[in-house]
Design goal:
The protein has about 525 residues and is α/β, with parallel strands linked by helices. The protein contains 26 helices and 10 strands. The protein has 4 domains: about 170 residues, Rossmann fold (3-Layer(aba) Sandwich); about 60 residues, Helicase, Ruva Protein, domain 3, CATH 1.10.8; about 150 residues, Zinc Finger, Delta Prime, domain 3, CATH 1.20.272; about 120 residues, GMP Synthetase, Chain A, domain 3. Helix content is about 55%, strand content about 10%. α6 links the parallel β3 and β4. Bound molecules: zinc ion.
Length: about 525
């Protein structure tokens, strides 16, 4: 017998992780106010069908205890445990979309129960029903016969018609917390005489995303000769060790790109699933972020990394090279050096001083944003200081000539193309205004990464810093950029049309080109 069936809760005391539902239901039993139709929604394996069966027991048990729990010894209780009570009808709407079953239901709904006090219909995956089946169901829900009860279960509530939802009492099943899952797994392991390593149990509990059924299933499947070993769980789930994750984040924090890229390659070569790897990275980063907030230190560096890896996760679904999204994320994080990177490094050591007099509490979301924008303010201040210093310098007479040389030296070519899009005007104070006709090119130049690279070249050519402002000017003639562009790059430019930019293709192409130097 599978461990999951063996340890399926047979009364409400054993039901784990859904306390709010247990309390409400047992109260309804006490006052004799059970509804005729329930709708259970929530992630897979969180106890929906189990609870449905418990309700069926409560409805039919001959000797309920004082809490309202079923006795589990009377003939109805034992038959329901064994799924052999004819008056409890379980329908799986996923098979054949429930067409035959609902027709059958319509025909027999008015017949009295065969043996038990009531007839209970448990419809699993109810969102799979056809429109016709839903309509038939709706009719019976509007006027259910006295002895008939419905429990509808679904993982996808948004697919259930409102007319159905409004006629049911709805319960939302929650993902079961990792700690709760571990306690239950530990209990079962002890009962079964399985020697389970704590880290192995934790890996399972984290992997199943709150589903008890999957958790117990994995414990069952991965225990060998009375042992559950971390190594086996790790191999089976494709989980990289916690240490690898920590090492990887450590390398990124130190902005050691070469090492980071090598680690990605290693993880990939060892056959680990990079999607799982990414998920673990994000989980670990989230913990670090929360910890930073609790310690009143700035979570900015972790926020930045989370953003990059979330981008990677989105890209992972469509990429043909599984390592590529991770590599791009690593490059972006490590290249945040200088411009944005300096802010990150500073922010890491700085504490949020404005809050230091208050009690240490976990700030709510707006405060996290406040912390981030604080770091940005620091950047702005530095920029302003720089601006003031330069303002008094003499205006460079041959700025136009020098700008051409800047264009020649800016790398990579994709950034050069974007910069070429700009019309350069010199302001009386010596600052430059770069007017772009395309928002795409403006954003590329005006990004932290773009500015960092351009500033380097400007410093080299002009021998000093030059302040420039990027503006969008759609009234510019479209020929401006093309005239100045080297002929050889014309075909690639075609890919930068507004359309490809909208679809995101331009962006991806740029990222790829930056990586491989075209
Ligand atoms: Zn009973």
């Amino acid at each position: 017998m599978a461990l999951y069936s063996k340890y399926r809760p047979q009364d409400f005391q054993q039901l784990v992780g859904q306390d709010h539902i247990r309390t409400t239901l047992l109260n309804e039993v006490k006052v004799g106010a059970l509804a005729h139709a329930y709708l259970f929604t929530g992630p897979r394996g969180t106890g929906k069908t189990t609870t449905a069966r418990l309700i069926a027991k409560i409805l039919n048990c001959t000797t309920r205890d004082e809490n309202g729990d079923p006795c589990n010894t009377c003939e109805f209780c034992t038959d329901i445990t064994e799924s052999s009570l004819i008056d409890v009808i379980e329908i799986d709407a996923a098979s054949n979309r429930g067409i035959d079953e609902i027709r059958d239901l319509k025909e027999k709904i008015n017949f009295a129960p065969t043996r038990a006090k009531t007839k209970t219909y448990i419809i699993d995956e109810v969102h799979m029903l056809t429109k016709e089946a839903f309509n038939a169901l709706l009719k019976t829900l509007e006027e259910p016969p006295e002895a008939v009860y419905f429990i509808l279960c679904t993982t996808e509530i948004h697919k259930i018609p409102d007319t159905i939802i409004s006629r049911c009492q709805r319960f939302d099943f929650k993902r079961i917390p990792v700690r709760t899952l571990m306690t239950r797994l530990n209990f079962i392991a002890q009962k079964e005489g399985i020697e389970a390593e704590d880290t192995a149990l934790e890996m399972i509990a984290r992997h199943v995303e709150g589903g008890m059924r999957d958790a117990i299933g994995l414990l069952d499947q991965l225990s060998m000769e009375g042992k559950l070993r971390t190594e086996d769980v790790q191999m089976h789930l494709g989980i990289t060790s916690h240490k690898t994750i920590e090492d990887f984040l450590d390398v990124l924090e130190k902005q050691d790109l070469t090492k980071a890229l090598r680690m990605i390659e290693e993880v990939h070569n060892e056959g680990y699933d990079l999607g799982t790897f990414l998920r673990e990275i994000l989980a670990s980063l989230r913990e670090k972020m929360m910890q930073a907030i609790q310690n009143n230190s700035d979570p900015h560096i972790w926020l930045e990394m989370i953003t990059r890896f979330e981008e990677a996760r989105a890209m992972l679904r469509t990429t043909v090279i599984p390592q590529l999204p991770l590599e791009i994320a690593a490059i972006k994080i490590c290249h945040a050096q200088g411009g944005n990177g300096a802010a990150i490094t500073n922010a890491k050591t700085a504490t949020v001083t404005t809050k230091s007099t208050e009690k240490k509490v976990i700030p709510k979301e707006p405060e996290i944003i406040e912390a981030t924008s604080k770091a940005q303010n620091e950047e702005e201040k530095t920029a302003k200081k720089l601006k003031d210093e330069i303002q008094h310098e003499k205006v460079d007479a041959n700025i136009a000539e020098n700008w051409k040389r800047v264009l020649e030296h800016v790398e990579p070519p994709s950034l050069r193309r974007s910069l070429t899009d700009a019309k350069v005007t010199e302001e009386p104070n010596g600052e430059l205004t770069l007017s772009f006709r395309s928002n795409f090119h403006k954003n590329k130049v005006d990004s932290n990464e773009g500015r960092m690279k351009i500033d380097k070249v400007i410093q080299h050519i002009f021998g000093r810093k030059v302040i420039y402002m990027c503006v969008l000017d759609t009234t510019l003639p479209t020929t401006t950029a093309k005239q100045e562009k080297p002929k050889a790059e014309e075909p690639a430019e075609a890919l930068h049309s507004e359309e490809s930019v909208k679809s995101g293709a331009g962006n991806l192409l740029d990222q790829a080109m930056e990586m491989f130097g075209e």
